[in-house]
Amino acid sequence: MKYAFIQAREARLSVQRLCEVLGVSRSGFYHWRGRARSARALVNERLLDVIRAVHERSRQAYGALKTWRALNTEGVRCGKHRVARLRKLHGIEARRKRRFRVTVEHHHTAPAAPDLVRRQFTTVAANRIWVGDMTYIRTREGWLHLAMLLDLYSRRIVGWAMGERPDLALALGALKMAVMHRQPEPGLIHHTDQGPLYSARAYRDALRAHGVRPSMGGKRSAYDNACAESFFSSLKNELVHHCDFASREQARTAIFDYIECFYNRQRLHATLDYQAPANFERLRGVS
To answer: What is the Cα–Cα distance from 97 to 95, expressed in whole angstroms?
Structure first.
C-alpha cells in the first residue's frame, strides 16, 4: 500500500521524500515497481479508470458510497471498501461544501401560513408537496437570482426561474413553470420559509387560483425547509463555487444544464434508493 501511494504521487513529489515520510527504502520501492504487476493490481488499475470516469461525470459530487452505487448501476461489480480505498489512495475527493445566504426584497405581506409539513419530508405520490426557495449567484456582471420549486416525492426540480432581481415576478415565474409542466390536482401543499415574496398577497392569490395550499416553516429555522436548502447546497458546492461566471447569461446556461441535464436526470439521490429523479418517476409512472 505504501509503495502504491508513492507511485501515485511521484510525479508531484520526490520519491526520496515520500520514502522518508512513509519509512520505506527507495531500493525497496524501485524493486517493487520493477516486478510484474499482480492480477489484483491490474484489476485495481482498470477499476480506478472507471472510478475516475464516474467522478468526472458526477461533476466531482459523489463520495465513495455514491461512486460505488453508480458503478453497480453500470454493471461494474466491486466492493464499496475497495472503491473507498482506491479513491483515498489516489486523492479522489468530492467537492467541499460552503455556506451561503439568501436575500430578498421586502413586499407587502399577509400573515404567515401554517406549517403543514412539520419537517416530514416524504410523501407517497408526486405533486402532493412542493418546497420552494430562492438564492443568488455571483457573476462579474452582477447578481443572478434563482427561484425554484422541488417535488418532495422524487426530489425533482419542477419549476425554476432566473433573473437580475429577487422580485415577485421571479417567484411567480418558477410557480408558473411548475404548474404548467405538472398540472397538479387541487390540494397540493406549497411549502417555503416566511420570506416576504412568498407571503405577498399576489403570490398567495396565484396559489389560491390553482387550488394550492400555502405552508410555511418557522422564522429563522432552516430545518423547516431543509430539502430546498439541501438543493441549493448541492448547486453551490457542485457548480457555483467552482466557476467564475463572466456574465449572467453564462451563469444561466450553466445552471440550466445543472438542473435539467444533471440534477433531474443523472444525479443519484440517497433518498431515492440511489436513483435520479427522472428515472425514479419513470419507474413509478409519473407523467
So the answer is: 7
According to DSSP, the β-strands at 189-192 and 213-216 are parallel
Q: What is the mean pLDDT of residues 248-261?
A: 96
Percent of the chain with pLDDT strictly greater than 90: 52
DSSP secondary structure string, 12-79?
TS-HHHHHHHHT--HHHHHHHHHSPPPHHHHHHHHHHHHHHHHHHHTTT---HHHHHHHHHHTT----
Q: Are 200 and 108 in contact (CB under 8 A)?
A: yes
CA 214/CA 114 separation, integer angstroms: 8
Q: Per-residue pLDDT averaged across 216-243, rounded?
A: 87
Which residues share a beta bridge with 162? 146
Q: What phi, psi does 162 have (nearest 5°)? A: -130, 145
Residue 2: the pLDDT is 77
pLDDT digits (tens, 9 = 90+) for 60-79: 878 888 888 888 888 888 88
Q: How far apart are CA 162 and CA 146, in angstroms?
A: 5
pTM beyond 0.85, yes or no = no
Length of the chain: 287
> Where is pLDDT greater, at 181 or 94?
181
Alpha-carbon distance of 213 to 204, in angstroms, equals 9
Residue 164 half-sphere exposure, CB side, CA atoms within 13 Å?
Answer: 5
- Angle of helix 64-73 relative to helix 39-57, nearest 10 degrees, comes to 100
Q: With bands split at pLDDT 50, 70 and 90, how would you rate the model's confidence at 221?
A: low
- CA 150-217-210 angle, 5° bins: 50
For residue 129, give the nearest of 154, 162, 147 by alpha carbon: 154
Beta-carbon count within 10 A of 23 CB:
7
The total of other beta-carbon atoms located within 10 Å of residue 236's CB is 18
